[in-house]
Amino acid sequence: MNLILFGPPGAGKGTQAQFLVKQYAVPQISTGDMLRAAVKAETSLGLQAKAIMQRGGLVSDEIVLGMVEERLAQPDCSGGFVLDGFPRTIPQADMLHAVLSRMGRSIEHVLSLEVEPEELVHRLSGRRSCPACGRGYHVEYEPPQQAGMCDQCHVALVQRDDDREETVRNRLSVYEEQTHPLKAYYLAKGMLRQIPGIGSIAEIQQRISSVLAG
Ligand code: AP5
Q1: What pLDDT digit, counting tens, does each position of 153-183 carry?
Q2: Which end of the chain is less congested by CB atoms within 10 angstroms, N or C?
Q3: What CATH number does residue 105 fall under?
Q4: Residue 71 contacts by C-beta under 8 Å, 6 or more apart in sequence?
Q5: pTM of the prediction?
C-alpha cells in the first residue's frame, strides 16, 4: 500500500499514520520528523532547515525530495509506505511521481483529512509530546494522567517550537498558499479521497479503514 496522508498542519496526519503503520505493517515517512531529527543532530541540512521551520515556512523542494528519495529506496519501504507531510508543493508531487515511476511504483491512495482552521489552531497549540519516547498528547483531547508528564516515562512533556499560536497561523497561511493547490492536482488525477477529520481519533481511523477497504 503506497499512500499519501494529506492535510493541513494539525489535521491528524501523524496520529492516523501511527494507526496505518500498525494496521498495514508499512513504515511512516514523515518529512517533518526527518527534518526535526536533522535539526537536533545539527547536520548541515538541519542547520539550513532550522530557521525556516521555526518561522513555519517550507524547506526547499530539493532538500526534502533528496531525503524522501533516499528513504523510499530502503528495504522496509518495499511493501508500501505512508507519506506524512510530503508532498507539500506541486513541484514536490511531480518529483515524487517521477522518482516512483523510475522505481516501477506509484501512489495508490491520497487521503485528505479535512479540518477547519480554528480547530487546527486549537489542536496544535494544545499538542505536547514526550521527549523520551515521542508519544503525543493533547492537553484537552488526549491528556496525560498527570498534567504535563508522560504516562510511560514520567518525564516532563514538551511543546514543539512551531506550535506556538503565531507560528501556527503562519504555517496555516503557508499551507493555503503552497500546499492546498495539491488537492486540485490530485482531484484532477482522480486520486483524492476526502475524509472528515473532525470526530474522535477512533472514528477517523474507522473512516480511513472504510475508504481503504472500498
Ligand atoms: P510537519 O511535522 O509535517 O508538520 P505539519 O504538517 O505542520 O503537521 P503536524 O505534525 O503539525 O500535524 P499533523 O497533521 O501530523 O497532526 P497531529 O496528528 O500531530 O512539518 C513541520 C515543518 O517541517 C513544516 O512547517 C516545514 O517547515 C517542514 N517540512 C515538513 N515537510 C516538508 C515538506 N514536504 N516540504 C517542505 N518543508 C517541510 O495532531 C495534532 C494534535 O491534534 C495532536 O495533539 C493530536 O493529539 C490532536 N488530534 C489528532 N487527531 C485528533 C482528533 N481526531 N480529535 C482531537 N484531537 C486530535
Answers
A1: 999 999 998 999 889 999 999 999 999 999 9
A2: C
A3: 3.40.50.300
A4: 29, 34, 77
A5: 0.95
